[in-house]
Batch of 2 targets.
Target 1
Amino acid sequence: MATNNETPLKKVCIICAKGTIEDVYATLVMANGAVMEGIETKVFFTFFGLDGITKKQMGKIKTATVGNPAMRAPGGLPFPTILGMLPGVEAGVSAMMKSQMYKLDIPPVDEFLEMITAGGGEIFACKLAMDMFKLEKSDLHEEVKDVLTIGDFYGKCGGENTQIIFT
Amino acid sequence: MATKTYAGQSVEVNDEGYMVNASEWTKEIAAEMAKEEGIDLTDKHYEVLEFLRNANEKGETLTIRRVGKSGITDIKGLYQLFPGGPLKFSSKFAGIPKPASCV
């Protein structure tokens, strides 16, 4: 039985550290979903997750076709890892993933970021990872609010009924 | 299921307060529902509600993006019209089911 003692979620802080289609989109869907529910939302992109907010890379993110046992060919047929190594396979699979998402009205990454900020969500980049990858704030999409240390990000994650989610 | 009275009319609603029969909807019902959430409906709001009702009738999947491209308002505008629930509140006031979409 459901009880009504639960107090609703007020804030989510989502951290994305990987740059595949499914990692970046899981982050974006959760962030946008939270904003749509009226939940305060902060997103922190770090390490390879930075590809999701880097202007040059955000349109080119891919799904890994090697080392991804859950990936199957259409119809549920097995997809041997060795095929995933062939040139063009990763691009083809990634294009298919994206086309399936677009059919469900899931937008490209840049538009998704704009949807999140339109509702008041905030997007941040990790300073350490930016330094590692030799990136500047100008390399990032305009919707990225700031480049922060993890300490500064935690500083934004306070308050009752706040959850930190690591995708 | 429960029955609520809006604008002097008894309306069947589900557990979350969404109307069960979209055909029972009137502008007055929408206005009273919106008041419960602290929103005063303007002409712009009603344009969005009409859009949602038409799309729902055609069986379209409703997403915030779809409404943002409707030409009535953009996504930012939608958040301003329906703070805290651009799709769920607008659907509720439009008398249609809660959209089963994640975007």
Target 2
Amino acid sequence: MAIEMIMPKVDMDQETGTVVEWLKGNGQQVEEGETILVMETDKIAIDVEAPGTGILDGISANPGDVVPIGTVIAYILAEGEDLPKKPIESKEPVLEIPESSVPAEIEISATPVARNMAAVHGVNLAVVDSTGTGGKVTKADVQAVVSRAAKPVDPREIYATPAARRTARIEAVNMGLVRGSGPGSRIQVADVKGYLTSKTQADFAASPQIQAGEVIPLIGMRRTIAERLTASYQSIPHIQFTVRVDMTNFFKARNDYNELALKRGDDKVSVTAVLVKLVSMVLTDHPWVNSSLIDDKIILHKDINIGVAVALEKGLIVPVVKNADQKGISLIAFETNDLITRAREENLNSADVKDGTFTITNLGPFGVEQFNAIINPPEACILAVGSTTSEVVALPDGTIATRPIMRLTLSADHRIVDGAVAARFIGDLKTTLENPILMNY
Amino acid sequence: MREITYLEAVREAMTQEMERDSRVFLIGEDVGEYGGAFQVSYGMLEKFGPERILDTPITELGLTGAATGAALIGMRPIAEIMFMDFTTLASEQLVNQAAKLRFMFGGNATVPLVLRTPAGSGTGAAEHHSQSFENWFVHVPGLKVVMPTTPYDAKGLLIASIRDDNPVVFIEHKLLYKTKGDVPEELYEIPLGKADIKREGKDLTIIATSIMVQRSLQAAEELAKDGIDVEIVDPRTLRPLDTETIVNSVKKTGKVLIVHEAVKTGGFGGELAGVIAESEAFGYLDAPILRLAGREVPIPYNRNLELKAVPQVEDIIQKARELVNLRV
């Protein structure tokens, strides 16, 4: 190995040294420690020793040259050794710009729709890869260019934690679409992960193959519903039981109530109101169906508070009729009408939707005959009410008749409600609905 | 296992090492007849005699210089500085001599010196007897800096420090002297430069030193009641620092609270924050790195003000909550 001889540093504040005289020249034999160079700083002249034994070569600083300290100014070579190659100086890379091969736009073959779309989005048709017959540019071709051009937001303009950024980078999430939950709306790693969960649907909507309609962020009531239903469906083992109910007597009773209500000037009694009353009466005999599993404790509720699911434009809300078992039909009719009206007007207060112990959801008016509902935690059960249709039934005496039939499906939390317990409840409910008079027993 | 105090663990490490190795001796002010200002060396004069338990005049510079010289010629001195505050007087010998000699002699000289000293406030000893200067020495290449938290760590780290060929600043804490813990009777070493996870958790990493480890452990118990699961990393050795353990913990939790007693500005917390920010853990941070440290004042004599001047358990709980609940 060639030994490097450098411009030495001999003073505290020295930055350069000046070559005064070489005492040996290229090709001459030198001994380690032998003086071979005289140099000077701005203070003194000094003798410099050979750093090794061998042949001096490659002197690159001549007398009078001012050289920064540490610079290699010569080499000492072994017998037959060549000078080390100088590193090749790096040239500034020259960008070669090819001559434009883009033909004039007028010559491009494209469908009229593609041409329009390109004009709207300011796309040069010449840069669009064509896939149409005969090399025609199609609408899809232009669309592909347009969606590529939709630039992601500059990450430096986003307020996010390093962990959130890292996750976004790994998962290829456009952080401009993520809503931050940290202080000052800072995006946390949990926000990115939350966004990812809903990403599949968003991707689907944003896919260029499918015309994206409106994209709605999952916030507010919709988010609450999404989270609660997911939690319920994932954590609660649901079991379902369906019964067919002959509603002949139920409707008769309801008509009687309505006649009375009309006379007294009370609110009209809805099917829902009668259902709330009858369900609450039956629940008094079935405490496990009117219960909650909270933190390893099963709470059998004293109160029977019936929630009534109301569909709204932007979701669903469940106002609660409190202590329904203690109230008369007319009061329940008034309360349910009031709650449903205020729910539709978005005028419910938090007390109106609190403390439910059992929920009734009725999709009968939409023509749904039967369905399974997801439990509304921490309640143990929910009752899905289908439509009432005129059906042919066999009567006990063997004859055939048509009767109004309604299907009820109970979803129960199987962790605390056994199959038999649920079955007995829905059986009792069927009996009571078919013979409302039993209510007064 | 047998329980002894932190103070007894320090004494036992010195005693057992002196029995094992005749080159080890103790030098300091009032370490002999008086048994040490905190009675750490109580009874050692009777056991080892005045040649190995050396009482010196009141000159920290002199005794540290003497210890450095002794170390250079092959002895393994333990020098005690009565209060860390007085290491200012010893620092010329320590910083400009002991720390440099091995480098200046190209590795041909070693300075196996341990400088033991108690730091910290809480005893009502006011401005000149309550300070925590660890970071001054952390800043010096050539010194090792050790801050044990438990009696077990105190014994194992002191033995390792005595056996180390480099000058070690061994910082004890006055309030920890009376704390108890399991300590084996036999000799054992805890390697310098190895951190210890004092509590495992997943929500937040607290990196604490000395007495603040104990306070953080108490805080963690309270926080656990709210479902906040705290991991506590005790570096034990500040230099060399076990960055790996720290980085791994931060990668796990994404949130860091650094707690030390020394004044915040220029304190070791800044170094820790820098190490984390430079490391791969940066990309895992889900909140700013927070430091909870001593206020920018000399330690006051007034008891209430003294408590306010350095982090207490409630302060740690509050800061941890702020971090975990994303209020910062």
